Amino acid sequence: MQLDNEEIRRYSRHLILPEVGLAGQKKICSTSVLCIGAGGLGSPIAMYLAAAGIGKLGLVDFDTVDFSNLQRQIIHGTPDVGRPKLESARDTIRRINPNVEVALHPVRLTSENALEILAPYDIVVDGTDNFPTRYLTNDACVLLKKPNVYGSIFRFEGQASVFAPHLNGPCYRCLYPEPPPPGMVPSCAEGGVLGVLPGIIGCIQATEILKLALGKGSSLIGRLLTLNALEMKFRELRLRHDPQCPLCGEKPSITGLMDYQSFCGIPDTTAQPAANPDEVSVQEMKQALDDPKLGIKVIDVREPDEHQIAHIQGVMLIPLSVLPQRFTELDANQHIYIHCKSGVRSLKALQFLREQGYKYLKSVRGGINAWADEVDHSVPKY
Q: How far apart are CA 51 and CA 136, in angstroms?
């Protein structure tokens, strides 16, 4: 391929790098990358790859832009709220560099479509935020012999690596053979994330992609780079290929894709629509608060900082983090409704109290966010 005069001007700061030059820029412009996720990590990855002149950029996402995304997902703006993320991302990429071919995949990545979607691309970059898709991406990359440029973020911490057994490195399963128990690792929606953190980790991922395209430098294959942004400390851990890995080991037992929701212990809610017997609705919580004669105690197990953002009058705050020290403040013979932000931590609290002998427990489905949607619109959502 040849670069025209406009492209030479656009990429001139690359062209004068001895490690890139004209030949290297042609390699970048001939490389195709699939970015799974157009959110916190996908935003800086897609924007910097587009600016660098990557030839083809595929994006996989099925979500729409929400106000809560704007604090970190910089590929989207305020006018994009409510739009499909892929449409917003495509428009931003075109403004950055109209020479980049953008391919949109507005679907959830599944075992049925992953191999077909990943196959045409040279490099895959993981910008996901959940374990089923992370394991699916890893397994599909190993089966297709594609480099998997990995990144993850949580609160003030992030990590990045490149998983590529076909390039003599480990895969994600070599590092994490099994997923954590469901709910053990809170999502960003539950635990929060510093807005700039995905920018840092995403830029590291984009750097690794360009190095792979150029065939230059020392990649993160065989290394895990971790960042504690609060302390601004980077650490590097050496990773080794596990010969016993069920996917890329000497005698692999995994030879195809699987049901990753089941593998990660996440129930299929579409197949099991029945209500959880341990849950009540926010309307039932309102009835308990409005009628003290019912004898139902309502407690909030969110953290104090969250309580300051939004709370419900008449509800006792006992954060989940201190519940093991404070549960004796509750009457074991009283009916107790437990709420949190969305219903995840309240179920954890319910399980803990049940183990302590409390019998009359219910978790409030949807938490305070459902309360804001269905009962009191003056309560802010966060």
A: 29
Structural domain boundaries, residue 335: 279-374
Q: What is the number of domains present in the chain?
A: 2
> C-alpha distances in angstroms, 185 versus 123, 128, 189?
28, 14, 11
Active-site annotation holds for 174: no
Residue 271 has pLDDT above 50, yes or no: no
Are both 287 and 245 inside the same structural domain? no
String of DSSP letters for 50-62: HHHT-SEEEEE--
What share of the chain in percent tops pLDDT 90? 91
Same domain assignment for residues 129 and 235: yes
Residues 298 and 195 in one domain: no
* pTM metric for this prediction: 0.84
Catalytic residue among 141, 171, 174, 340: 340
Q: What is the pLDDT of the chain when averaged over all its residues?
A: 95
Is 264 catalytic? The answer is no
Q: What are 234-243's contacts with CB under 8 Å, separation 24+? A: 239/161, 239/169, 239/170, 239/174, 239/175, 240/170, 240/174, 241/165, 241/168, 241/169, 241/170, 241/171, 241/174, 242/170, 242/173, 242/174, 242/177
Which of 188, 203, 248, 264 is the catalytic position? 188
pLDDT, tens only, 163-210? 999 999 999 999 999 898 876 777 777 788 999 999 999 999 999 999
State whether 231 and 362 are in the same domain.
Answer: no
Query: Distance between CA atoms of 32 and 120, rounded to whole angstroms?
Result: 8
* pLDDT tens per residue across span 130-160: 999 999 999 999 999 999 999 999 999 999 9
* DSSP calls for 27-42: HHHT-EEEEE-SSTTH
The C-alpha angle 171, 268, 144, rounded to 5 degrees, equals 25
Q: What average pLDDT score do residues 211-219 get?
A: 97
- In contact, 112 and 106? CB cutoff 8 Å: no
Same structural domain for residues 180 and 70? yes
- Asked whether residue 321 falls in the same domain as residue 252, the answer is no
